[in-house]
Amino acid sequence: MASKILMPNPSANHVAYSASMVPRSHSIGQVCLPNKSTAETTASISQSLVASSITPTMSTKLDKTSSTRTSTLAHMWREVQGCNNWEGLVEPLHPFLRQEIIRYGEFVTACYQAFDLDPNSKRYLTCKYGKKNLFREVGMGNPGYEVTKYIYATPDVNIPIQNEPSCGRWVGYVAVSSDDAVRRLGRRDIVITFRGTVTNPEWIANFMSSLTPAKLDHNNPRPDVKVESGFLSLYTSNESGDKFGLKSCREQLLSEVSRLLNRYKGEELSISLSGHSMGSSLALLLAYDIAELGLNRLGPNLDIPVTVFSFGGPRVGNLGFKERCEELGVRVLRIVNVNDPITKLPGVFLNENFRVLGGRYEFPWSCSCYAHVGVEIVLDFFNMQNPSCVHDLGSYISLLKCPKKGDQVRKDEQNIFIRARESILSRAQNTNMEPLRNAASNLVNLFQNV
């Protein structure tokens, strides 16, 4: 598995980080970080923070070390949540930001581990565990959060051949930090997490790639703000045919967020949303919805921070949606793998990169172009033995935990290409055909740089 993160094009809000620091020919608008020692220094800082808690010292010294770390995180929480658009925290990746990205990613992992896909189970398509035991059952122990609500989404898609019941599927949960965690985090954190696509109707919804006006605020529909119809349907559809049916994912979420904001009124609060794949789309829609409705607004110039941590997320809306999210102060940190095809969808051709010609002329169809929202941290990993890892959440988190882990695999893969090149060129030499030798050399170089 190889890994790389590259520096941003400042105008594109794009940041990337690399363990191997190997340039790639297709990384347009990106340059490598200055040197490898910077990344190693960052990793050593992160490791020293962990090591300080296990070094055998006097208990008073341990308490001092712990309190220093706590106060630093507590004082930096607004920056880590993106109040300054993560300026100065991503090049290199700051230990506290890395720590928080991993933590929110593990909250999403719990969604996958707890989702019951056994058709013979009484909890089929729901969570296998109760709210009080969820974190313990998935192996997270006590993360300092209490689950307050489970969230269900109903895909408004009919598949005649499917055997799955047409009902709401468990997609995530809402949790709030405990009093002990508040002291460590510096604020009361409301977390909403979403898993990615699992069931057949969800896959169908993902491919409904037409843009449609979001119209989530009936007082101001904003027809120019458009989102992918499948994601919007998943977010707003409810169970039909029964007046006691499950409310839409949106209604469940807005109700619970409003309740928690009212319960902890007067405290320092943050709203953190995290999701993987389809889940990151739901997280972004909810973040936009909360901000558009003003649920996070405490005063004319005082808002509760709303931050999205997106893992392997696709595009969600058009340029109007992106610009409106930025106006509302929604912060989005996108963690993507450059080899992950899901992050290129929808809008493979009509996207933010193809709406302007020569930097001046804007095409007429620009309003119909998809656009990513937020700051992007680009990972670069691929495993020849397991190509599906490019979209696997576990691979994302594993690389973030051990950024140097991909170095040896990258070297091994380079050795494979070197041996393959020598073999092909050797065969081409025996043919005494110059064009074939050149073609063989170019072919190997092409694959090595893809």
Topology:
Elements: E1 14-16, H1 36-51, H2 59-80, H3 95-114, H4 134-137, E2 145-153, E3 169-177, H5 179-185, E4 188-194, H6 200-206, E5 211-213, E6 226-228, H7 229-236, H8 249-263, E7 269-276, H9 278-293, E8 297-299, E9 302-303, E10 306-311, E11 317-318, H10 319-328, E12 331-337, E13 356-357, E14 361-362, E15 370-371, E16 375-379, H11 393-401, H12 405-431, H13 434-449
Parallel strand pairs: 1-16, 4-7, 7-10, 10-12, 12-16
Antiparallel strand pairs: 2-3, 3-4, 5-6, 8-9, 11-15, 13-14
Helix pairs in contact: 3-11, 6-7, 7-9, 12-13
Notable features of this structure?
Rossmann fold; 450 residues; disordered C terminus; 16 strands; two-stranded antiparallel ribbon; 2 domains; eight-stranded mixed sheet; alpha/beta
Protein described:
The chain is of the alpha/beta class and 450 residues long. It has two domains: 10-403, Alpha/Beta hydrolase fold, catalytic domain (Rossmann fold, 3-Layer(aba) Sandwich), CATH 3.40.50; 409-450. The chain has helices spanning 36-51, 59-80, 95-114, 134-137, 179-185, 200-206, 229-236, 249-263, 278-293, 319-328, 393-401, 405-431, 434-449, and strands spanning 14-16, 145-153, 169-177, 188-194, 211-213, 226-228, 269-276, 297-299, 302-303, 306-311, 317-318, 331-337, 356-357, 361-362, 370-371, 375-379. The strands form five sheets. Strands 1-16-12-10-7-4-3-2 form an eight-stranded mixed β-sheet, with helices on both faces. Strand 8 and strand 9 form a beta hairpin. Helix 12 (405-431) runs antiparallel to helix 13. The two termini are 14 Å apart.
